Amino acid sequence: MLDAKLFRNEVAETAARLAETRDFQLDVAQLEQLEQRRKELQVRTESLQAERNSRSKAIGKAKAQGEDIQPLLAAVDDLGNQLEQAKVELHEVQEELHAIISGVPNLPDASVPLGKDEDDNQEISRWGEPHQFDFTPADHVDVAHKLANGMDFEKGAKLAGARFVVLQGAIAQLHRALAQFMLNLHVNEHHYTEAYVPYLVNHDTLYGTGQLPKFGEDLFHVQGATEKQVPLSLIPTAEVPLTNLWRDEIADEAQLPLQYAAHTPCFRSEAGSHGRDTRGLIRQHQFDKVELVWLVKPEQSMETLETLTQHAERVLQLLELPYRKVLLCTGDMGFGACKTYDLEVWLPSQDTYREISSCSNMWDFQARRMQARFRRKGEKKPELLHTLNGSGVAVGRALVAVLENYQQADGSLKIPTVLQPYMGGKTEIKCI
RNA sequence: GGUGAGGUGGCCGAGAGGCUGAAGGCGCUCCCCUGCUAAGGGAGUAUAGGGUUUGUAGCUCUAUCGAGGGUUCGAAUCCCUCCCUCACCGCCA
Predict the structure, then answer these.
(1) pLDDT tens-digit profile of A154-190?
(2) In a domain, A8, yes or no
(3) In Å, how far are A40, A266, A344, A418, A429 from A184, measured between CA atoms?
(4) Binding site for L-serine, residues of A?
(5) Residue A289: its pLDDT value, please?
(6) Are residues A202 and A97 in the same domain?
(7) What is the pLDDT of residue A240?
């Protein structure tokens, strides 16, 4: 959520920036009108409340002194109704305003290139050379198939439906090895606090990171057995629980920066992506991810984005997977981000780079929604934190990348050196 | 799942329809006193929003005692629903 002051004092400028960068049309006239109504109603409501309070106090005093309070009660008679009505109207206007404002995306940082979609993204760097195969590289589905049928989409479909998978044997083990390796790297070498978090979260939590109210259809929602139970949703990323650890909290400056890492499954309904990446592991309803989250002082957030991204890059470097780093343009960034780097890993079967990590600085956008704050030493007023998150990295897609980049002519798979300790020292997975 | 007890400021803990944004204590900040250490005295110490304003200063108003509704001129206090915590019992990985 953007600062409400931007909508009060600089509506026109804000609308122009949103239109330019986000192709987002802010209805300025409507907003101004609502804002004016809000002001009137709030002033009216609060002065009525003030009057009621002082009159009630007077009644209390009169009563204590044994005076007749009937006339005082009569004088206050109509006040209740007026107040009631003003409150209802104020509430309506505030709801309307809130609905509009909470649906406005974050403003991009000045360093972000203007653009419409992914074609306008800016490549920052490349790492590693795509391996030259002396045979036609198979895609990960075929590679896995030859390895003891380690990736079974039919079983996944039988158990749950389309976009689910069952991994077995060495492939399942490799999947686990990847997650373990990543989490260990971040916790042991990059000093993240390891966290185990709920995979189901409530709506307040989802609102905090920006999934609600706008993106509810991207999630799986779970209704408890009884109607009274609060509705929960499966997390689409561990960013949600990790960032919300500090919802409605005020950190001491000395506690900062806070950095968390978690390995969790992620659940996405992928509504609206019918027909995209239907083959293979690329786009599933359920996938694992190691997520990195930072909460920092505002003046540190931009340099933290670089650090965070490097941590994700390190995973790919150690796995010796070629990748490129891309700075997303304004039009391709997520709702709450002010600056995002994507890491795209080389997939030989597709002869292209595919997203495997996305690292974003959310500025104070989520923190404002969450009221996640900190207090500087010696200062009275708490300030909003800045939040950042990044995948470090997506486990399923990392598995895809390893399968495709490490495949051998005979159908067997070399195991990346850094994963070998997690695979019982094995150096390859033989085909059957 | 059952029964019982609770959820009050940074923390502990009173209050049980009006003068309570909330006693008292602890902690913290500032000042004073004390030749060290210890102790003592005084003042201050929530958050959000609105109005005023060039102002994140000041002044002022409003809201907040787990959440949401209700009763009332007036609710931390009474009623209802939900959430959470603790204890014991049952069940369970």
Answers:
(1) 999 999 999 999 999 999 999 999 999 999 999 999 9
(2) no
(3) 57, 19, 22, 11, 23
(4) 237-239, 268, 291, 389, 391
(5) 97
(6) no
(7) 95
pLDDT confidence of A109, banded at 50, 70, 90? very high
Instruction: Say which CATH number the domain at A35 has.
Output: 1.10.287.40
CB hemisphere CA count around A258 (13 angstroms): 21
Tell me which residues have their CB below 7 A from strand B: A 4, 8, 39, 42-43, 46-47, 49-50, 52-57, 59-61, 63-64, 73, 76, 79-80, 228-230, 250, 371, 373, 375, 380-382
- Residue A429's pLDDT is 95
Task: Give backbone dihedrals phi and psi of A272, rounded to 5 degrees, phi first.
Answer: 85, 5
**A194 and A64, same structural domain?**
no
- Check which CATH number belongs to the domain holding A404 and give it: 3.30.930.10
Residues A98 and A166 in one domain: no
The answer to whether position A57 is within a domain reads: yes
One domain, residues A335 and A241? yes
- Which nucleotide is the nearest neighbour of A229, by CA and C1'? B82
Distances (CA, A) of A160 to A52, A149, A153, A163, A164: 59, 19, 10, 8, 6
Q: How many CB atoms are located within 10 Å of the residue A68 CB?
A: 9
A269 pLDDT band (50/70/90 cuts)? Answer: very high
pTM: 0.92
Catalytic residues of A: 268, 283, 355, 358, 397
Tokens encoding A31: 């907003």
Confidence at residue A225, expressed as pLDDT on a 0 to 100 scale: 65
Given this model, what pLDDT does residue A226 score?
64
* Residues A98, A122 share a domain: no
Reference A14, options A62, A190, A25; nearest CA is: A25
C1'-nearest nucleotide to the CA of A35: B50
pLDDT at residue A389, as a whole number:
97
Q: Are residues A88 and A212 in the same domain?
A: no
Q: What is the pLDDT of residue A98?
A: 85
Inside any domain, residue A247: yes
Q: What is the ipTM of this complex?
A: 0.82
Range of the domain at A150: 118-429
The answer to whether residue A7 sits within a structural domain is no
Beta-bridged to residue A234, according to DSSP, are A200
Q: How far apart are CA A260 and CA A291, in angstroms?
A: 8
Q: Report the number of distinct structural domains present in chain A.
A: 2
Q: What is the pLDDT of residues A294-312, one digit of tens each?
A: 999 999 999 999 999 999 9
